[in-house]
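ok here's Palmitoyltransferase:
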Amino acid sequence: ADTCVVGFLLVSAFFFFHLFLLCRGQTTREWYSSRHPYSLGLLGNLRHTLGLRWYLCWLCPLIPSPMPGDGINFQVTGSLEPTR
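and the structure:
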């Protein structure tokens, strides 16, 4: 039972950290460098990550949800230059 609790806590921390990154529109690498040029706000980030019908993806990931872009080019809100 103790192993299950520890595993649950570790997976929960991993989940909430990546939910935090999703809300900010960042990758882990951008988080380390404190950059967020792709942040479009909470709803914009959800749409760009989960598709236009993001609210249905939470219920069932098998429901199709078209993406707003082509998956290669993304809208930029800040500078892409590295910070020093």
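+1. The mean pLDDT is 84.
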